[in-house]
């Protein structure tokens, strides 16, 4: 993105719509000036300009709820920007995932904010596993897996896969639910052991979905 092409308003600001890169949920609407935009690009995390305090602010500097930037896109008029991020915690100062929680029109349909928030456990789980690998707290099962090494982890992935197959074969939804959760957990431990971020797997799924969505060539 060429900063010189950005059209700031008469106050030197541009509205920034911050969106979860994975769930596509809109997290907040903030404003950037030239300096905060440059800092966002340089640091890879969101910086904004506070109109009420008349100063720059780094999202998460105090709370720890930073936002790692995945992509930034200007609109067709180049006077608004979308910032796709991976949030390290709630976006709203009230502690909610998004600042847009209050419904003023429409009924629950499709993927609601609550539905999307449910997927946040995958992000949280990955962070917990990452922390367990670093700190190795005594008595933690995840610590045990990392200390035993890749062969033990692979064995558990295989065992849990078999349990999922058995539960599905038996049409036991309750058992399938629990075994699927076990499989996902052990798979994420394996990904961490291999130093492969779960986000890379999600990107593959997104690419496959995008290809299927493309119209057939004439």
UniProtKB/TrEMBL annotation:
Record domain Phosphoribosyl-AMP cyclohydrolase: where: 29-101
Part of which pathway? Amino-acid biosynthesis; L-histidine biosynthesis; L-histidine from 5-phospho-alpha-D-ribose 1-diphosphate: step 2/9; Amino-acid biosynthesis; L-histidine biosynthesis; L-histidine from 5-phospho-alpha-D-ribose 1-diphosphate: step 3/9
Q: Which domain of life is it from?
A: Bacteria
Give the chief site where it resides.
cytoplasm
Q: Which UniProt keywords apply?
A: Amino-acid biosynthesis, ATP-binding, Cytoplasm, Histidine biosynthesis, Hydrolase, Multifunctional enzyme, Nucleotide-binding
Q: Where is this region: Phosphoribosyl-ATP pyrophosphohydrolase?
A: 122-218
Q: Which reaction does it catalyse?
A: 1-(5-phospho-beta-D-ribosyl)-5'-AMP + H2O = 1-(5-phospho-beta-D-ribosyl)-5-[(5-phospho-beta-D-ribosylamino)methylideneamino]imidazole-4-carboxamide; 1-(5-phospho-beta-D-ribosyl)-ATP + H2O = 1-(5-phospho-beta-D-ribosyl)-5'-AMP + diphosphate + H(+)
GO cellular component term of the entry, any? cytoplasm
Check the record and name the Gene3D superfamilies matching this protein.
MazG-like (1.10.287.1080), Phosphoribosyl-AMP cyclohydrolase (3.10.20.810)
Might you give the EC number(s) for this enzyme? 3.5.4.19, 3.6.1.31
Task: For the region Phosphoribosyl-AMP cyclohydrolase, give the residue spans.
Answer: 1-121
* GO MF annotations, alphabetized: ATP binding; phosphoribosyl-AMP cyclohydrolase activity; phosphoribosyl-ATP diphosphatase activity
- Localization, UniProt: Cytoplasm
- Output the GO biological process annotations, alphabetical, semicolon-separated: L-histidine biosynthetic process
Q: Which PANTHER family match?
A: HISTIDINE BIOSYNTHESIS BIFUNCTIONAL PROTEIN, HISTIDINE BIOSYNTHESIS BIFUNCTIONAL PROTEIN HISIE
Q: Which family does it belong to?
A: In the C-terminal section; belongs to the PRA-PH family. In the N-terminal section; belongs to the PRA-CH family.
Q: Which NCBIfam families match?
A: histidine_hisI (TIGR03188), PRK00051.1 (NF000768), PRK02759.1 (NF002747)
In its UniProt entry, what is this protein called? Answer: Histidine biosynthesis bifunctional protein HisIE
Supply the source organism for this entry: Cytobacillus oceanisediminis
């Amino acid at each position: 993105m060429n900063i010189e092409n950005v059209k700031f308003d008469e106050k030197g600001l541009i509205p920034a719509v911050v969106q979860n890169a994975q769930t596509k949920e809109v997290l907040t609407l903030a404003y950037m000036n030239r300096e905060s935009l440059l800092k966002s690009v340089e640091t890879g995390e969101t910086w904004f300009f506070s109109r009420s305090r008349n100063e720059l602010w780094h999202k998460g500097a105090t709370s720890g709820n930073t936002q790692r930037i995945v992509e930034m896109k200007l609109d067709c008029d180049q006077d608004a920007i979308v910032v796709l991020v991976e949030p390290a915690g709630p976006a709203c100062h009230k502690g909610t995932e998004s600042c847009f929680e209050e419904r003023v029109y429409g009924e629950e349909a499709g993927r609601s904010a609550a539905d999307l928030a449910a997927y946040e456990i995958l992000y949280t789980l990955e962070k917990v596993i990452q922390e367990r690998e670093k700190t190795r707290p005594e008595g933690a099962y995840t610590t045990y897996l990392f200390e035993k090494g890749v062969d033990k982890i692979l064995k558990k992935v295989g065992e849990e896969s078999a349990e999922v197959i058995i539960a599905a074969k038996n049409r036991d939804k309750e058992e399938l639910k629990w075994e699927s959760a076990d499989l996902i957990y052990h798979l994420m431990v394996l990904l961490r052991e291999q130093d492969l971020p779960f986000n890379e797997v999600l990107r593959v799924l997104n690419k496959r979905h995008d290809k299927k969505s493309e119209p057939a060539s004439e």
